[in-house]
Amino acid sequence: MLTAFARAFRTPDLRKKLLFTLGIIALFRFGSQIPAPGVDLTAVNKCLAPALQDNQLFALVNLFSGGALLQLSIFALGIMPYITASIIIQLLTVVIPRFEALKKEGQAGQAKLTQYTRYLTVALAVLQSTGIIATARAGQLFPNCPENVIYSDVGVFGTIVMVFVMTAGTAIIMWLGELITDRGVGNGMSLLIFTSIAAGFPASLWAIKEGSQYGDGWPVFFAVIGIGLLIVAAVVFVEQAQRRIPVQYAKRMIGRRMYGGSSTYIPLKVNQAGVIPVIFASSLLYIPALVVNLMGQDRPKWATWIERYFVQADHPVYMAAYFVLIIFFTFFYVAITFNPQEVADNMKKYGGFIPGIRAGRPTAEYLDYILTRLTWPGSLYLALVSLIPMIALSVIPQANQNFPFGGTSILIIVGVGLETVKQIESQLQQRNYEGFLR
Fold first, then answer.
1. Model confidence over 279-331: pLDDT tens digits?
2. Which InterPro entries does UniProt cross-reference here (predicted)?
3. Which CATH superfamily is 1-190 part of?
């Protein structure tokens, strides 16, 4: 990976793209530190440190915003509204025939779906910013902190301005991501997510060192670093693992020319669903915490039971539910994103077949069988990696639930890193080929 970046910096046009990407990332992190109008930054800083040790309701969104959410900055929502909108649009393509037709239209249809995603992102940003500001004004954003993080003289107009600023911040983040995609290196939205998550790594590691109960904390610090490197190596290995289904295309005579006769393969990844099942499971398990927080102190017995078993991330019942939900959502997401029957029909249409398997329905059944066998280890892998922060929380009390080497953070960072390196190597190979032709 380091070799690829070194070679890219020695190539003039790639060096410009890398520097442009780094400049956009720096601008993004700068905006994450600017507080929104009406926010008492002093009170936020007083409430922030103790809040990070608890099971926060907005922990997932705060992770994707790089800590900007709990600081109530202009980029407080981060990229989370766009992620949610993208997932919703992707799921709707299976349900709504119009969206499914747009998906099959190629680049023009994809541009239309992207436009719908932007509109939905803005709508979700308005809803989320309104909810966050209302929660902060009610004192529920930092439940154990008596400070008012929003000035008391902020009225209705000031609240509207705060909602507008946070929504505009989300729109700017979308624009910055598209700039990276068009003029930089890698996928812009993915890199911004990568930046937000990586920004919390130093603070999380230092908190483990400072809060250690074993001497000066350095042995625990380096032990966590060593375990983290092993986890990263294992995640890289599984993320690159795939089952290649061989496909042979028969020769066809069209006019006076012979077409086909080539061999290729269908790459089926072990982790076909990516990090989406983890996001789904985390979002679903935040609903009980939301219900409990909205009830206040006078809660019925069933709410107390929910608080006991489904709010604390290190509780065995919570971990078991999280484990089962990730496996369920992995199979669910793979089922709606990969259609074996459609793949089999396309292969039959263009004269392709799997050696030893008849075209048509037998091919679809064979692909479904292979996909199911791959999804089981992939779902177990996702569930185990996602439980690492919760296990660390029970073993190392000073490691909050956003423990850096595990869960959503490590899956996204490794995935985005591998994708970016592959794009850089692809562009380097293309330029080497162009230089050879010259």
1. 888 878 877 776 776 666 667 777 777 777 777 776 788 888 889 999 999 99
2. SecY, SecY/SEC61-alpha, SecY_CS, SecY_dom_sf
3. SecY subunit domain (1.10.3370.10)
Instruction: Give domain 200-405's CATH superfamily.
Output: SecY subunit domain (1.10.3370.10)
Cite the residue boundaries of each domain of the chain with CATH code 1.10.3370.10.
Answer: 1-190, 200-405
User: Which residue bears the tokens 């709508």?
Assistant: 123
Closest CA to 390 of 269, 281, 272, 250: 281
Buried b (16+ CB within 10 A) or exposed e, 335-373: beebebeebbeebbeeebbbeebebeeebbebbbebbee
Q: What is the pLDDT of residues 7-25, one digit of tens each?
A: 778 888 888 988 999 999 9
The structure's pTM equals 0.81
pLDDT at 145 over 60: yes
What are the phi and psi torsion angles at 39 (to 5°)?
A: -95, 130
Least confident of 108-117, 235-244, 284-293: 284-293
In angstroms, rounded to a whole number, what is the distance separating the alpha carbons of residues 169 and 28? Answer: 10
Distance, in Å, from the CA atom of 295 to the CA atom of 311, rounded to the nearest integer, reads 14
**Residue 251 in tokens:** 């020769």
